[in-house]
Write a structure and sequence with these properties.
With 269 residues, this protein is mainly α. The chain has helices at residues 3-27, 33-67, 72-98, 103-106, 108-140, 143-149, 151-176, 180-183, 188-193, 212-218, 227-251, 254-267.
Length: 269
């Protein structure tokens, strides 16, 4: 390719990007040039990142099914679920970047249903490595009890724990706050789906920037004379803060570190 052709190609690409930015700004007049450029490049980055993750997870699935080591069922399920969750999240992210007020076309149920799906998927991802570490702890440190129960039985138990723990997490949040999935801010794409394009949490939009610890603080005590309601309030408050501590312990890998320290200490005896 000659130098002149190279120059023409770059000029054409620059004109094409400029045209795309101008078209996007006409479609959304309140959008700045920086926001338009960010909107165009985010899908490209997301698709490239997802493609790399897809390749790695498919490799994990292939090798796990071939080797069939201690945690192979957990690994296969984990990779399969994460492919689905990240694909769904990526599609939602891209669609809500280019389509205003998706809820007007699909109904609010679609946005809130997507919030539940993404929340459960991410909670599964956060807890998966903890489940694997506890399984290894039981099989290695508590090997006598594991032998008595049976290795296949223990693997089956942890396989179901691995599947059900995010549902238990969601049910805990719903017990503490029945409107949890309405009030909790899970991700920008859901906020955009519900109509808040700039993630400003304007009071006119049907979403709020509540974080997990805010839900505990928002619980208001009834009068003490109403004993059943007050007892329920104390129970919800205790479960809420216990759940928060457990959640941040998982996010900080504190429980996993304890399990692996016990395993390493046992193997060095």
């Amino acid at each position: 390719m000659s130098e002149l052709d190279e120059h023409r190609r770059y000029t054409t690409n620059e004109e094409y990007v400029s045209l795309m930015i101008a078209s996007l700004m006409r479609y959304q007049p309140s959008m700045s040039v920086f926001e338009a450029m960010s909107t165009l490049f985010q899908p490209m980055i997301a698709i490239c990142t997802f493609a790399m993750g897809l390749y790695l997870h498919l490799r994990v699935i292939k090798i796990s099914m071939k080797e069939k080591d201690l945690t192979w069922k957990l690994d296969v399920f984990n990779s399969s679920l994460l492919i689905g969750v990240f694909l769904y999240s990526m599609v939602m992210h891209i669609v809500t970047l280019f389509v205003n007020d998706v809820h007007k076309y699909t109904g609010d149920w679609f946005c809130y249903g997507s919030k539940v799906v993404i929340y459960i998927g991410f909670r599964y991802m956060h807890g998966h490595t903890l489940v694997v570490s506890i399984l290894k702890y039981v099989m290695i440190v508590q090997w006598q009890k594991a032998r008595d129960v049976g290795h296949d039985q223990i693997k089956k138990i942890f396989f179901w724990i691995n599947i059900l723990h995010p549902l238990l997490d969601a049910c805990t949040n719903l017990f503490v706050s029945p409107d949890f999935f309405w009030s909790w801010d899970v991700s920008p794409e859901i906020t955009r789906c519900l109509g808040d394009q700039k993630h400003l949490f304007n009071p006119n939009f049907n979403t709020t920037p509540i974080k997990l610890h805010d839900i505990c603080n928002a619980l208001k005590p009834p009068v003490k004379e109403a004993y059943p309601q007050y007892a329920l309030y104390v129970l919800r408050k205790g479960i809420c803060w216990t759940h928060i501590v457990f959640f941040y312990s998982i996010m900080g890998n504190a429980l996993e570190m304890i399990a692996y320290i016990r395993i390493f200490w046992f193997m060095r005896r």
